[in-house]
Amino acid sequence: MDLGTLADLEFEAVIFDMDGTLIDSTPAVIRSWAAWASEHDLSADQLAGFHGVPAAGIVRRLLPQERWAAALERINDLELNDVGDIDVLPGAAEALAVLPSGQSAIATSCTRPLAEARIAAARLRPPAVLVTVDDVRRGKPAPDPFLEAARRLGAHPTRCLVVEDAPMGLAAARAAGCATLAVSTTTAPDLLEADAVVVDLSAVSWRISAAGVAVRPGLSAN
């Protein structure tokens, strides 16, 4: 497996997206948004292309302003009440376990209550730094979540590696100046614009040294 330019770099920190990168919440997401769309007379086609975008951004794109508040409250309720079959994706728990707490973070488009509910449902042990859409002025595809995660870690964004599964999230990472590693868990590899693309986190390993964090091919990549 070719990690391209990533193989030659040492990073101050690694920032992970959550849904589709660390955990598989796809069934719950589909159920919640399908119910919400039906209630608002929206089609599946109208929901397409928003993976990785905060719920508020989707609501504002699809509905008139006078309906925003109620519609956002409704989708938040639907998602918070549907966390029954969320699982950890391959390699995710191992990555978080090996990376030092001060050198890893999660930056997600979820609200904090939803992020915490999904992390708990997946029984994932998160890093100390968790940045949600509640912590920033603008969500993905704006760079704010990754810039805030880097700030909290005391790392320069250009010395951070972002791991993402969504085109919008990768766009946010690039805008923040971060290096990018994409996992093709929810999106076809040819649609992922990143420094390297792998099937999931089991395809890489992590080397920790005084110089920082390096990403290397994992056993499943052979």
From TrEMBL:
UniProt KW keywords: Hydrolase
Molecular function as annotated in GO: sugar-phosphatase activity
Keyword Metal-binding appears in the UniProt entry: no
InterPro entries: HAD-like_sf (IPR036412), HAD-like_SPP (IPR051806), HAD-SF_hydro_IA (IPR006439), HAD_sf (IPR023214), PGP-like_dom2 (IPR023198)
Broad enzyme group: hydrolase
Domain of life, source organism: Bacteria
Signal peptide extent: none
Keyword field contains Magnesium: no
Enzyme Commission code(s) on record: 3.1.3.23
Transmembrane segments: none
Pfam families: Hydrolase
PANTHER family hit by this protein: FRUCTOSE-1-PHOSPHATE PHOSPHATASE, GLYCEROL-1-PHOSPHATE PHOSPHOHYDROLASE 1-RELATED
Protein name as annotated: Sugar-phosphatase
